[in-house]
Amino acid sequence: MNVQLTKPASLLLAGLLALMPLIANANTLERVRASNTLTLGYLPDFAPFSTQEGDKASGYAIDLCLKVADKVKAEWGLPTLQLHYQPVKVADQISAVSSGKVDILCSPTPATLERRKTVSFSIPIYTAGLSAVVRKNAPEALLNVLNGKVANEGPTWRATVNRGLSNQTYAATAGAVTEQWIREQMRLLGVVATLVTVENTAAGLKLVAEGKADAFFSERMLLKSYLAKDYADAKLMLLDRNYEYAPVSMAVERGDEDFRLLVDTTLSDMYHSGEIEQAYDKYLGGASDTVKKLFKAYALP
């Protein structure tokens, strides 16, 4: 069907088409003001940091993002600002920000140098710890090595460690920093083992529970949350050891210093006022003295 536009309509359409590239290239806050919508990206199965609830989300990181939204409303005079919750996958979380699909990635993630080529990051909102879940009847040699002990009596040679780690199947979330870490450890130690990747934490724990993987590596608080919810009676256990620590942040558009400043100002205010400690108590089981010291280190003056 052919539709003929009147001259005013044609001019309006031409103007809108001309404006579209400008909106696409505008910085985050300008896009938000033009659309009156702030799009919050999040991992839907990342409790207690972010969890999908219908067409919305909840969790520690979501509460912090809502404070960012309040700041946008107040500073940009947008009292009717709409929030759009956009779930993303781990493998797509960075590209979702760099492509403009989301305005901010609420779920915390490590700010690696490789990622900083395409996105920018807020000040840290949490310190992640890398841990592992195994079956309670896992081989003693594997448990000893994963717990930081030698696999057998005698000198702690690399070959001794390898005997505990080799010929095992490890699992990690595809596209996560943990996957890269495991591959690097296997390379450095010369471990002959299998690494399988899964879409999310639930899938990784299922592999271990079914005996299809010997250990699943992921963020400690995330593992604790899933074990308490889905595997309270299962023969799985979270090892005490933390293999790595890393500050994790929200991701925003690269080079957009105005929006990044607004986000960092919001988070710093929460650190200084104690609001972030309240969110920590609500979702993460309370802040230790060490965590409280990190609050002071992360907040900008």
Automatic annotation (TrEMBL):
One term under GO cellular component: extracellular region
Sequence ranges assigned to domain Solute-binding protein family 3/N-terminal in this UniProt record: 37-287
UniProt entry keywords in alphabetical sequence: Signal, Transport
UniProt entry tagged with the keyword Oxidoreductase: no
Stored InterPro entries: Bact_solute-bind_prot3 (IPR051455), Solute-binding_3/MltF_N (IPR001638)
Range of residues in the leader sequence: 1-26
Gene Ontology BP terms: amino acid transport
Family, per entry: Belongs to the bacterial solute-binding protein 3 family.
Identification of the protein by name: Glutamate/aspartate import solute-binding protein
Organism: Pseudomonas fluorescens
